[in-house]
Task: inverse folding
């Protein structure tokens, strides 16, 4: 499963474990602005009992095109009460989920696994095209044609998206019911001295989720 160390992917790790799976967690050092989220991913993998946690190095700064991988592009800060931009924001990393899922597909084949979990949501999110159900459906169809295991009939990959239709508040409630300690997670795109900035898209969505759930954010 793909584990960023954020609220959504941490919840999905708990769901995968509750579904009875041994969870092999995969994170990426992809040229993002900070490694705070990777420290969070390590904590969550241990907290929720991942069978293994790997951090893979790839460098999407080679292409840039995102505020998360290009230091010349500023992270937008809409503020806690502002409407999020209806356009796809500059925090979108070109083809990130396509790339990450490809690595997950490769590791799944080696592990003889047929289930991949990813924490995408089409409800409370920043409008990224690679979080939509139609993208996941298309990727799954492709993945079932892409590997030796699939061609030989030993693998029929299923991409699980248990948060796809949940709001952030519903995600938080689901995670708490499964024992997720959200104080171990990190969501901010541009932390200051390791602390959330509170004003980027991701911080705003997270704050609204806890507010809607009627709960304080334990990471603050």
Result:
């Amino acid at each position: 499963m793909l584990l960023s160390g954020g609220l959504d992917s941490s919840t999905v790790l708990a769901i995968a474990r509750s579904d009875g799976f041994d969870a092999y967690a995969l994170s990426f050092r992809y040229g993002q602005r900070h490694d705070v989220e990777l420290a969070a991913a390590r904590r969550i993998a241990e907290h929720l009992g991942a069978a293994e946690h790997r951090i893979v190095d790839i460098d999407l700064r080679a292409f840039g095109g995102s505020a998360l991988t290009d230091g010349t592009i500023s992270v937008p800060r809409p503020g806690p009460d502002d409407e999020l931009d209806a356009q796809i924001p500059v925090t979108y990393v070109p083809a990130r989920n396509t790339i990450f899922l490809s690595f997950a597909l490769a590791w799944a084949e080696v592990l003889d696994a047929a289930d991949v979990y990813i924490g995408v949501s089409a409800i409370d999110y920043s409008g990224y095209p690679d979080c939509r159900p139609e993208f996941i459906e298309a990727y799954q169809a492709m993945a079932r044609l892409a590997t030796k295991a699939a061609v030989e009939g030993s693998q029929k990959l299923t991409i699980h998206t248990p948060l796809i239709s949940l709001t952030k508040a519903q995600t938080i409630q689901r995670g708490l019911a499964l024992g997720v300690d959200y104080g171990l997670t990190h969501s901010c795109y541009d932390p200051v001295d390791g602390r959330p900035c509170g004003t980027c898209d991701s911080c705003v969505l997270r704050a609204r989720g806890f507010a809607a759930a009627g709960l304080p954010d334990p990471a603050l």
